[in-house]
Write a structure and sequence with these properties.
Blueprint lengths: L6 H17 L2 H9 L6 H9 L18 H14 L6 H12 L4 H11 L5 E4 L2 H4 L7 E5 L3 E12 L6 E7 L5 E7 L5 E7 L5 E13 L3 E4 H40 L1 E2 L2 E2 L4 H27 L4 H30 L10 H13 L4 H12 L3
Parallel strand pairs: 1-4
Antiparallel strand pairs: 2-3, 3-7, 4-5, 5-8, 6-7, 9-10
Helix pairs in contact: 1-4, 4-8, 5-6, 5-8, 8-9, 8-10, 8-11, 9-10, 10-11, 10-12
């Protein structure tokens, strides 16, 4: 099987990499995450207006370029290399399976995302409601629409949202999805900063009144959309982790050529050569599992769930090994603010817990493997 990128995919990678290197170098990233908002709108605006990048993975029916899962993998890997704080995972990767084809209003909303006019963030308690289980928000039909009550914790990128996709329990009808403006009366948001420099928020819904046309899906349709979005998000997280691991490996090899002890570069010591060879193998294993997960996204739900769960398990383990080895080989420098190694390792640790821990995905893999 040929895993080489096409000319168009190579151009996509080079375009994103060059843009981020020029406009979002690591020093700029550190400045941005220190600000109260934790992001800089000009990067996302440039994605939409200068590069047309937001259209890349969407289908041509929605006005996109049809780069699909492979396009998302390429872009998430480059965002990982830059330690980006942009909401690509949430508003591009995860919103699309929740909304696409549900109705004309949802397709129009996604076209707004492509144009850079909307940022749609899933406000869903994924570790609990992932794969379509009931969430912590309740919806009641009130004749002309619905009323939402409850809350969702730790919603990443919530402050960027123009709209939320909310999963709610509709009683005997099962789960339902709603697409609502983020500034709707009755929606309260309490922002917080995460250990990796990102931002999240606890969101509360106080008898929020919704019109009937805000309902995206109910019952089995909602379950399937939740599961597809969850798996797409896991796959994208894996791609981001691949990009971060590549940078840690590159910096570690380069550092080992420059740092000298006992009169020679530490990279000449066989023990460290073996350690860096193991890092390389872990990175390549992560790449392979991410490609496998990408190929599964359009397949049967059980096969898709197994593939992305397996990728998340292996990459959680590989990321810890690569991150720890990078810090150890850098020595004390690896823990200082002079180098970005510690920042990148911190993001890998956060990814290991984001959308479910390694243990959670072992259970999910087992359930998908032995389901009837």
């Amino acid at each position: 099987m040929n895993f080489e990128y096409t000319e168009e995919q190579t151009m996509l990678r080079e375009t994103v990499a060059a843009f981020l290197k020029d406009r979002f170098p690591f020093d700029r990233r550190r400045e941005v995450v220190k600000t109260p908002a934790g992001f800089s709108p000009d990067i996302w605006d440039a994605f939409a207006t200068e590069l047309g990048l937001l259209a890349a993975p969407f289908s041509e029916d929605l006005g996109g370029f049809g780069a699909g899962a492979t396009g998302n993998m390429i872009i998430m890997e480059e965002l990982g290399k830059a330690l980006s704080v942009e909401p690509w995972l949430e508003s591009i990767v995860m919103a699309e399976p929740l909304l696409a084809g549900a109705n004309a209003a949802c397709d129009e909303a996604l076209q707004g995302v492509i144009a850079g006019e909307r940022i749609i963030i899933p406000a869903i308690d994924w570790p609990v409601s992932g794969a379509g289980r009931k969430g912590t928000v309740e919806a009641q039909a009130d004749g002309s629409g619905f009323t939402l009550t409850g809350g969702v914790a730790l919603v990443r990128q919530a402050a960027r949202a123009t709209h939320f996709v909310i999963a709610a329990d509709l009683g005997s009808a099962g789960p339902a999805l709603f697409l609502v403006p983020a500034d709707l009366p009755g929606i309260d948001r309490e922002d917080a900063r995460l250990v990796d420099g990102g931002r999240c928020a606890d969101i509360a819904f106080h008898n929020v009144s919704l019109s009937a046309d805000t309902c995206v899906a109910e019952g089995d349709d909602a379950v399937q959309r939740l599961a597809a979005s969850f798996d797409a998000g896991l796959f994208a997280l894996c791609a981001e982790a691949v990009g971060i691991q590549r940078m840690l490996l590159e910096w570690t090899v380069e550092y080992s050529k420059q740092r000298k002890q006992f009169g020679k570069a530490i990279g000449e010591f066989q023990a460290l050569q073996h350690r860096m060879a193991e890092m390389f193998i872990k990175v390549e294993e992560s790449v392979s599992m991410t490609i496998l997960a990408a190929a599964s996204l359009s397949g049967e739900a059980d096969h898709r769930a197994k593939s992305v769960a397996a990728a998340k398990i292996l990459i959680d383990q590989s990321a810890r090994f690569v991150g720890e080895a990078a810090v150890q080989i850098h020595g004390g420098m690896g823990m200082t603010r002079e180098l970005p190694v510690a920042d990148y390792f911190t993001r890998l640790i956060a990814i290991a817990q984001q959308m479910g821990s390694t243990e959670y995905h072992f259970q999910r893999y087992e359930a998908a493997s032995f389901s009837a």
